């Protein structure tokens, strides 16, 4: 079987996690607070702000045809109303670097981080937040020429759930989960933040709607809820606020991004740990590659057939054998779902590089290792394997 010509085979990153020294962002401010809950700082990260050509060369060397990366609003608008044309030119250079190498750019406009001034002014629930975000999108419009895929907001459901945690507004006892479990066990999203994100997404899509050849959508953290016996009725109760309402927003979008890593088991009492004897990743999540197929099926059913792009899927591990086993099983499941008729347009592995995982350097998701002192990149055997798999396509290996 020849390599897929239209299917996207690539890897994903996020600006704050790889660029380094994102000093005007709210996450940088959080990292450097004296009482920061984050154990480690991003610092220079992978220095990809300067080394992005090397990262694109690695993608090309692996034979991958697409790259998902984010623009940093905090760099582009470091102070309210002050637009850095130098930063716009920087991100345009990255886009052109992709196009020159035959790599399809998949651009994310907001990947968890906001300018520090935006968050200090009230974040997404501030009176002018939606207008501020649309004005930011207006500024980046000109650099998106030739970009066929734009993700407006990454995992808005996680943003809204984290906002609920930070607010101190405890959910009802029946809705509480165990914080050590995956995202599905977090409190339900803050309703005001959720509503604001819905509006921001629609405003961004409206701003981009007349750009020729550009498809826009957002990405959702898919939690693959699975009900244990006696808990079947609980599934929609947990799934709707944490996932399904965000999928519903995507029903009229050009695509929706699926991001899946593991599953959430529901007992009648709520989410439960899968047990001490299960395989786990460095994040403590259950080793469960079948989560991808389940998430794609659920998304397709919920959205009524909106085209799907797998924008994140991967595993935190130091074992390349485990990464290959996990990814191979996930891709086999994805093949089954496509054979069932689901419209899947691509698979972007998380992540291209071992990077900063929002407070810790411990979890290693990368296809490429990065020396944190010299920033030397080394392709892992799993990276070579994935590149070879991309040439084969989704046919069973």
TrEMBL record:
Q: Which InterPro entries does the UniProt record give? A: GH (IPR017853), Glyco_hydro_1 (IPR001360)
**What keywords are annotated for this sequence in UniProt?**
Glycosidase, Hydrolase
Query: Which residue spans traverse the membrane?
Result: none
Q: Gene3D superfamilies of this UniProt entry?
A: Glycosidases
The keyword Hydrolase belongs to this UniProt entry's keyword annotation: yes
Q: Is the GTP-binding keyword given for this protein?
A: no
Query: Could you tell me the superkingdom of the organism this chain comes from?
Result: Bacteria
Pfam families in the record, alphabetically?
A: Glyco_hydro_1 (PF00232)
Family assignment from sequence similarity: Belongs to the glycosyl hydrolase 1 family.
- Sorted alphabetically, which PANTHER family does this protein's record hold? GLYCOSYL HYDROLASE, LP05116P
Q: What is this protein called?
A: Family 1 glycosylhydrolase
Q: Which organism is it from?
A: Lipingzhangella rawalii
